Fold this protein.
Amino acid sequence: QLQLVESGGGLVHPGGSLRLSCAASGFNLGDYAITWFRQAPGKDREEISCISGSGETIEFADDVKGRFTIFRDSAKNTVYLQMNSLNPEDTADYYCARKEYCSGWALNWGQGTQVTVSS
């Protein structure tokens, strides 16, 4: 059964870090891109990062570039989003999604994990 499960969210102080995980099952990460989205209360969903199946394409939205990194562990079939220098504007529900390629449509979604940045 194809599934994406996010984890790693929580409450963090401004300036802190969190690492989100997107564990994939039912397919090989090497065959698909994984994209991280987030949606803050009252705001539109925002695509923030993507890593292609080959790993050769890595993309970030401007507002997270330089603070977030994305990488994967093929042995664990898991993609990680390392988030540093977090600020209250990063507060949102974070989701990972499977795509054919980074510029494509999301095919499957995880259930999401909540990130709250607050003092």
Summary: The chain has a mean pLDDT of 96. The CA atoms of residues 98 and 108 lie 5 Å apart. The radius of gyration is 13 Å. DSSP finds no helices and eleven strands in the chain.
